[in-house]
Write a structure and sequence with these properties.
With about 100 residues, the protein is α+β, with helices and mostly antiparallel strands. The protein is built from two helices and six strands; from the N terminus they run βαββαβββ.
C-alpha cells in the first residue's frame, strides 16, 4: 500500500486547509492537493493526500472512507499511479 490517497466526492466548497484539518485529526498529513478547474479555480470535487506512513494511510482509509463532508460521503482509497498522457498531437488547437 502507498502513502498517497485519492479523496473524492468532495463538496465544491472544499479547501486544501479544511481537507488537511479533517484528516489531521486522525493521522499525520504530509501534503494535500485539491484539484481545481484551471479557468475558474473552483474545486473539481477530488484531490490527493499524502500520509507520513503506509500504516497511517491505511488507518485514514478505514476511518474516513464514507464519512460525511458537508452532506457528501467522502471516497477515500489508495491513489493509483498517474497514467501517461499523450503529447496532444492530433488534437484541435495543438501546437506542432
Amino acid at each position: 500500500m502507498g502513502r498517497k490517497l485519492y479523496v473524492g466526492n468532495l463538496p465544491y466548497s472544499a479547501t486544501e486547509s479544511a481537507l488537511s484539518d479533517k484528516f489531521a485529526a486522525s493521522v499525520t498529513v504530509e501534503s494535500v492537493k485539491l484539484i481545481t478547474d484551471r479557468g475558474t479555480g473552483q474545486s473539481k470535487g477530488f484531490g490527493f493526500i499524502e500520509m507520513a506512513s503506509d500504516s497511517e494511510a491505511h488507518a485514514a482509509i478505514d476511518k474516513l472512507n464514507g464519512t460525511d463532508y458537508d452532506g457528501r460521503p467522502m471516497k477515500v482509497n489508495e491513489a493509483r499511479p498517474q497514467e501517461k498522457r499523450s503529447s496532444g498531437e492530433g488534437r484541435i488547437g495543438a501546437k506542432r
